[in-house]
Amino acid sequence: MNDNNPLHTAVSGTKSHNLFLLLRDAILSRRLSPGDKLPGELKLAEQYKVSRVTVRRAMDALRQAGLIARRPGVGTVVLEQPLEATVMTASVSNLLPNMLKMSQSSKVRLLEFSYVTPEAPIRQRLKLEDGEKTQRSVRVRQVEDRPFSYLTTHVPASIAHHYSESDLAHTPLFVLLEQSGVTIDHATQTISATLATQPEAEALEVAVGSPLLALTRVVYDQNGKGVEHLDALYRPDRYRFQIDLNRTGDEDSRYWEPLAGGNPEGGL
């Protein structure tokens, strides 16, 4: 099997829907370009260790979705796709305005609300005492009824007791923190990439193993106490990060630095 093949990745299970999602992701992310020829049914069946019936159903679904077409004398090819109508953009240097706009332009679906003893890395980042619990929530944000982010948050129980599950389902978390008496002072965050697991894939409507943008952010109050730990996953075809840069420095040592304030056209 060719490791450079853009379709080469893990498939969970043998259902045709999983293969459809996998191929759809490859097309929408442009790992498969318009005009590219897809392998034949037998080749795909061998590559993903599924039956030809499974492949045939997945291909039929791709054709019905307008993603591929059968060309006489050529085979099955990828069709040109319009860009997503809505792609959320986040200015990394303008956090709070981003969060406000995000809450106004998207809907949230609460999947989980519980109190847990967090794992050691989360406990350390939030500077919690041993045995101290957090309120753990899992939410999916949607725009135009299409999911684009999968958010897992931990808030110290002493703060989270001020709001309910219903509150979190209808009110942005940063608003609930402020209503709980928290004064947000600063935050640290890292951005990387990861692959979708089964729960994340189902919530974001992608195939297991699909690439996702990953953000981890820890928010602190004026006393340096951690008040929120966020692990956020984003579909790269529906979400992007933006960093506005300013050219600065002396003529012999000029460099780029983040522009304070940025452009608050999106949200985290």
**What is the overall shape?**
globular
Q: What class do helices, strands and sheet pairing give?
A: alpha+beta
Order of helices and strands: HHHEEEHEHEEHHHEHEEEEE
Largest sheet features: 6 strands, antiparallel
| Number of E-type strands | 12
**What low-confidence regions span 5 or more consecutive residues with pLDDT below 50?**
9-13, 263-268
Strand order of the largest sheet: 4-5-6-9-8-7
Total helix count?
Answer: 9
Q: Any idea what the radius of gyration is? A: 22 Å
- Which class of the largest domain in CATH terms? Alpha Beta
Question: What fold name goes in the CATH topology slot of the largest domain?
Answer: Chorismate lyase
Distance between the termini: 39 Å
The percent of residues in helical segments reads 25-40%
Q: Which percent band covers the strand fraction?
A: 25-35%
CATH-assigned homologous superfamily of the largest domain = Chorismate lyase-like
Number of domains: 2
What is the name of the CATH architecture of the largest domain? 3-Layer(aba) Sandwich
Describe this structure in words.
The strands form 4 sheets. A 6-stranded antiparallel sheet has the order 4-5-6-9-8-7. The protein has a two-stranded antiparallel sheet with strand order 1-2. By secondary structure, it is an alpha+beta fold. 28% of the residues lie in helices and 32% in strands. A hairpin with a 6-residue loop joins strand 11 and strand 12 (255-258). Residues 9-13 and 263-268 have low confidence and may be disordered.
